[in-house]
Each structure stands twice: as C-alpha cells, then as structure tokens.
Design a protein that fits this description.
2 copies of one chain form a homodimer.
Chain A lengths: L3 E3 L5 H8 L3 H7 L1 E5 L1 H9 L6 E4 L9 H10 L3 E5 L1 H7 L8 E6 L15 E6 L4 H14 L3 E5 L8 H6 L9 E4 L1 H10 L3 E5 L5 E2 L9 E5 L8 H6 L2 E4 L11 H16 L9
Parallel strand pairs in A: 1-4, 3-4, 6-7, 6-11, 7-8, 9-11, 9-12, 10-12
Antiparallel strand pairs in A: 2-5, 3-5
Helix pairs in contact in A: 3-4, 6-10
C-alpha cells in the first residue's frame, strides 16, 4: 500500500495536529501527541495503540526510524509522510526528529490499579508545570513506584511537554488522576501510610521509617501541600537544606524522598515496615 | 540624577545586550547577563557588582522591583529604563519580568577555594545542557557542597540558561572550571576521596561510606564518565534503577547521590568517615 504524502500546510490533518497542542481540542478528540523516536518506541513497547504516525525523513537523526515506522504500521497506525516544512509546522519541539504520533487518551481509575502486597505509591498535588510532572514520572519509574496518582491536576497529563519531559515513561508508570478526598479514602482503605513533605515538618525524611505500604505525597510548586494533605497525612517530613531556602523544586524534593524510600525498602522494594 | 530611557531597538546598548546571549561576545566583553528578580536579588545578596541594570516597569510582576533597582543603583550599577518592546527584545526569557542586569565574569582557581576541614565537593564532567548545569548547581547548594568543580566544560557557566536554571545559585556556590587532570591532582593532594557514579559499578551508592573528605564525580549526559575518571576515581558506585534504563538523567543522579552523602554525613555535614 503506497504511503500518503502531505506537503500542504493547509491540509486539515496538519491543522488538526497543530490544534492538538491545546487541551480542549485534545480532549474533544480524545487523543494526544507523542513526538520523538524514544517516546514513540516506548509507546510501542507498552502496546499503546498509535492511531496515526507522521514522519519526515529529512529530519531523521539516526538510522532506526524506518524500522520503527514499520513496527507502528504493523501495529495498526495509519502512516503518513510529511514534507520537511510541513513537519516543522506540526512538530512541537525546537529540534524535531521527524517522528510524530497520535495516541488515544486513556482514563485509569484508582480501582484499576493492580498493586502488590506492599505498595509504594507517589501522590502529587496540583503540579503546575508540565516539565516538572514529566520529570516526576521519570523519578517514579526509576524508583519503581507501583503507581503515580495526580490529585486535582492543574496540568493535563497529556500535555506534549509532559510526554516529552517524561521521555515516554508516561506509558509505563500506572497513572491515575483523581480528587484528593477520594485518593485519601482509597489510601486509608488500602492501609497505605502517607508521608508528606513540607518545610514545616519537624522530622527529617531520612529519619523516619519509609518501609511498608507507603504513599509519598508532594505538594504543588507554588503553594506546597494543601491544608487537606497537611492535615490528613500520617507523617509530615522535611528535607534539610543547607543553601537558599528555595534551592529544591518539587521535582528535586520528590526524587530525594523516593530514593530514600528505595534505600530503606531494600533491593526487592517490598521489605515490610517494622 | 535622571534615569536614562531607551526605546530605540537600534540603540547600541540594546544590540550589545542581545549579543551577550552568545559566548564569544560575552567572553570578549568579560561580562554576562543576569535576568530576573530572583537572580538579581541573589547577585546583590552576594555582593556581586552589577555594572548595568535595565528595567521596564510594564513587565514587572510584583511590587518590590523599585526597591531592588534602587539597591543595585546604590551598589554602583548604571541603571537604565527600557521601553516595553525594547525590553522584550533584550529579554532572554519567554515571560520576562522587566529586570535584566550585566555582571562581570569571574575566574576562580582551585587554589582560591577555601575548604573546611572535611570538604564535600561536587565534580561534574563536560555537562552539555545549560539547564542541567544550573539544576546541578541548585542541588549542590541545597546539599551544602563546599564547591562545584566543572571539568573540561562544554557549557559556558555564564550561559543565560545556566544562570536561570540555577535560579541565581551560581552566585552563592563556589564554582571552579578546570581540566580533569589538574582537578584529580588537587583532590589527591587534599586527600579528598572520589566517588564516581557509573552504571557499570558493582557497589550501590547508598551502601558505601560517603563520610569524610569527599568528591562526588558525575559524567556527562551523553557519554557518562570519561575513561580518565573511571580509571582514577577511588570508588565507582551505581544507582539501582527499577524502570527504563535511562530514566535518570545526570541532574537526577547527582541529587540522589549528594543527598545520600548528606544523610550519611549527618546534620553538621562534617562527620568524619570511619
């Protein structure tokens, strides 16, 4: 089957791809953009159905792109070539690599999460910057979190900058968006202890027991933890800082706390608390 | 003294400010750009001499800008107002806050570093992305590192994105740029043990002793540690990862390692190794 080639900037599909950078058209179409070799590869590895794949060979950076395109096509993606300038228009990145896909959005509920006997969960509240959310997803993946729960989101998890900053980890970490009150009720029902990081806490994060069923709760960039979580978290902890008061942003505080939990929980990640 | 106001985009000072985004003109003039309220405030806190300060009230985000401008003027900065569109041209950021300063570059040598009895140093090799270098500086500040040594730099430490990503911490962390061989010789002379993070190591970073005189050595984004440091570091360590092989970037690996050292070294940061 010959592959369609689009060069007109006025083509309706080109216009639609540009629109998908914004949330409303994304939600209306129920899809989102996945740009870049690494991100698309990870989507395919996780059997995410890519409905459309656009490519433009003049932008390719390596030699593996044709194989990836073929893999996506075999998996059911509608494949379409774009002229160089046309691709530049639909690309979200400053330095595109000639690959852009469209994937369906999904909605996962708390009840859908398959947790192990001793769960290790990250809860983030109202994160504002897509780049921070993406970085936090990478951290959770590296730390082996069983799920990431985004409460009362300000940032759309399908924002192209989340996909990019997560380097495609968005496809591998189980991710749920839910209201804080429901998340708390669910955590209590599951008997998962909540540890919340806040500068106002007395105890230092590395001096408390982070083993057992655990949820690390992190606040937003600008406001930190909400009253709700400050009041309801089982254990408030702080990260001692030597320098400027705001040296650590939320993504940095998250990775420090997660990896201290990993250290305490040991190699198999499920060592039970005492 | 009335404050000069520039509105012409053709004004030579406006053109020079735009040029200072690039390294060569920066090095020729021996200065660099400091944009933003927080960054300028930190420079003033550290008694950095700002030679020029440009402001444009229509971009201000808060109410403290006039006081900051007055503080800079009193400290010797030549203050100049820019018309709104003129400021937009010289601003480096997408969302400028109406404040842009010029500061002289400095050059600090290893011999200039005033180290405590039990030093805690970060060595980074050939970091490529200014944003990563800035984030690493923030981490080193938060962890209380006594110095950051940048070996064989690819990124200019005076790149505007380093200043921005460091949120001005560039002014508070003692920073030295030097060749790797000289850094190693200096560390050995000072009897500072080197711990180098590499995926190839057998020992896990949190299971080795990170107390005592310590230098944490981190490689570049793309290539990791060079042969030189892999061969010469006292102790190679790795960070265990649960997820994708490349989940952690160099800035994330740095903060994990630094904060494990902080944890082991204890509250006053100088507890001696055993």
């Amino acid at each position: 089957m010959p592959i369609e080639k689009i060069s007109s900037l006025q083509n309706p599909r080109v216009k639609q791809l540009v629109k998908l950078r914004d949330r409303r058209p994304r939600d209306e179409a129920g899809v989102f953009l996945v740009e870049g070799y690494r991100e698309i590869r990870r989507a395919l590895e996780k059997n995410v159905l890519l409905t459309e794949l656009y490519f433009s060979p003049e932008w390719f950076l390596g030699e593996n792109e044709p194989a990836l395109i073929e893999q996506a096509r075999t998996a059911g993606a509608q494949v379409c070539e774009l002229a160089k300038e046309t691709f530049a228009k639909v690309a979200y990145r400053e330095r595109p690599d000639g690959l852009l896909a469209v994937a369906p959005q999904w909605k996962r509920a708390l009840a859908d999460l398959a947790l192990p006997a001793v769960p290790f969960v990250l809860v983030v509240e109202a994160i504002e910057k897509p780049g921070n959310l993406g970085t936090i997803l990478r951290s959770a993946d590296a730390a082996g979190c069983d799920a990431v729960i985004v409460c009362d989101p300000v940032t759309d998890i399908f924002n192209p900058n989340v996909v990019r900053a997560s380097t495609g980890v968005l496809f591998s970490v189980p991710l749920v968006v839910e209201e804080s009150a429901r998340v708390l009720a669910w955590l209590r029902e599951k008997k998962i202890r909540t540890v919340a990081t806040t500068p106002a806490a007395e105890q230092v994060y590395s001096e408390v027991d982070l083993r057992g069923a655990l949820a690390v709760v992190m606040g937003s960039e600008q406001y930190g933890l909400s009253e709700f979580w400050l009041k309801n978290a089982d254990l408030p902890v702080r990260i001692p800082m030597a320098g400027q008061a705001d040296s650590l942003n939320v993504a940095m505080a998250t990775i420090i706390t997660l990896f201290e939990a990993v250290r305490q929980r040991g190699p198999n990640g499920t060592r039970s608390g005492t």
